[in-house]
Amino acid sequence: MSNDRVTLTDKQKKAQRSRSIALALALAAFVIIVYVGTWAKLGANILIRPM
Amino acid sequence: MGIRTVDTSGPDRPDENLSDYSKIEQMALVEKNASMDTSIGLSEASASDYVVLLKPRVMSLVVFTALVGLLAAPGHINPVLAGIAILCIAVGAGASGALNMWYDADIDAIMKRTAKRPIPAGRISREEVLTFGLLLSAFSVVTLGLFVNVLSAFLLAFTIFFYAVIYTMWLKRSTPQNIVIGGAAGSFPPMIGWAAVTNSVSMESIVLFMIIFLWTPPHFWALSLFMSDDYEKAKIPMMPNVMGPASTKFQILLYTLLVAPVAVLPWIMGFAGPVYGLFAVAMGVVFITYALRVWRAPVGKEMIKPAKKMFGFSILYLFGIYAVLLGEILVRKALLLAGA
């Protein structure tokens, strides 16, 4: 079965790593934006959670 | 939305270039190696290729003009939300750039200026770019709507639609007025910035819109006067190819005569000060002088030099107008803070 596996060239590995890092950074940035944005938008109201 | 599939045999593609384009489409996105199944395509596109899809230079102008609109608007916005608004506008502009590259890959491959873009260069497939553009469009519009307001999100969505569908898919290949009407897409950012603060569209934001809208034709037509061969090769009906250079030169002058007084309106309407006003007048006079030189230059090689100068100054003109407006706003805000 091992013969069926795809072997990446060095160029492909480098490109994949670059894309993975960029994607991770973009996702992390989005999480931070949503977190900080929610605080900025709702302010102290963020703590009001009616049961 | 009328988005077509990735079929490369559409009727609007330049027929004689189909073979070239098909080759590009078929070009491996990878270096095939011995152990690879030929049906598997692995991308060699790096993160920077995806950044190129966002047209960073256009994006920087969008961010700049949106920031001016946001800061010029009366009222207050939380600085974090202002930052999110600018980021969403930037990402939305980038998304429309990616959608433009997705649709225009065939003509990009023909034109010298655009042949090295990720799709014609064979580094990213059209399908990937379409997905990338649609995803970023959705994220930027929804985020802006959730965190800032629905009006600015609607304006951003409309801008993306206008650029990707109205301009790229329809006008660009069908009329020499393409960049006149399509220029509206590039004019919306200050209006979106203004709407992010005020949740409204006012005369002031329309004036900021009109400055860029009227500036776009002389800017692009000056470029097309010395790049018309490239546009002709790609069969894009730019003004010099369709109406001829003489008519183009006259229309450049006409639009320059319109934009120069409109750029002074922020001072007359009272949302910019005298420094901006006098600067806009001076820049307008110089802009008109350049347009007159282009108009008076005889058709042929002699018009290329003044056209290049006009193109160069047009960038300086818009940047200068908005930069001085921004500077004045910042000084006014700083003085207010110092007074308080």
UniProtKB/TrEMBL annotation, chain A:
Keywords from the UniProt entry: Membrane, Transmembrane, Transmembrane helix
Domain of life: Bacteria
Protein name (Swiss-Prot/TrEMBL): CoxF protein
Record-annotated membrane-spanning stretches: 21-42
